[in-house]
Design a protein that fits this description.
By secondary structure, the chain is mainly beta. It contains 1 helix and 20 strands. The protein has one domain (5-168): UDP N-Acetylglucosamine Acyltransferase, domain 1 (3 Solenoid). The strands form 4 sheets. It has an 8-stranded mixed sheet with strand order 2-5-8-11-13-16-19-20, covered by helices on one side. This is Dynactin subunit 6. One of its GO terms (molecular function) is dynein complex binding.
């Protein structure tokens, strides 16, 4: 079992009640809600700046069954400005910048997410693929279309959470320098 190692950059807000397991780095400005889970099972997870990881969101770094027991330890790199909404489960091996994972969506460990993608509420994506930039997946049949606009950053919500969460939850102290 991997040893827990948390690197938290200044400006990040990580609630102590969140479930963190493994080698995890949290970038500046990122917010991790109290009941979010981040599990680095297959190797380290590096979360970029200004990401929002909401209640009961799960980010799990696990290898596909056919890649287990290999010597290399892959790193899951999550870019900046991503939003992981309530109760989503994300196992993607790579996530770019400015993506939105809506409530209760599931992204399997064979799906690579590029930049500016939106995975709609309740959508389940498991087939091996690389999602092109600015793709939206939506509806009960997980329809795919190209978006004209990129997802809008959650600046106001994040500013509000930065003020409110420390009043009601214990916050992990930053332990890395810029």
């Amino acid at each position: 079992m991997a040893r827990n190692s948390f690197k938290i950059f200044p400006g990040a807000l990580v609630c102590e009640e969140s479930k963190l397991r493994g080698d995890i780095t949290v970038g500046a400005g990122t917010i991790i809600h109290p009941s979010a889970s981040i599990i680095a099972e297959a190797g380290p997870i590096i979360i970029g700046e200004n990401c929002l990881i909401e209640e009961q969101a799960k980010i799990i770094h696990r290898l596909p069954f056919d890649q287990q027991n290999k010597d290399n330890t892959p790193v899951l790199i999550i870019g900046s400005h991503n939003v992981f909404e309530v109760d989503c489960t994300i196992e993607a091996p790579k996530i770019g910048n400015n993506n939105v994972f809506e409530s209760k969506c599931f992204v399997g460990n064979k799906v690579t997410v590029s930049n500016g993608c939106t995975i709609g509420a309740g959508c389940r994506i498991t087939d091996e693929q690389i999602l092109k930039e600015n793709i939206s997946i939506f509806g009960s049949k997980c329809q795919i279309r190209e978006s004209i606009d990129k997802p809008v950053p959650q600046i106001l919500q994040m500013e509000t959470l930065m003020k409110i969460l420390p009043n009601y939850h214990h916050i992990r102290k930053p332990n890395k320098k810029h």
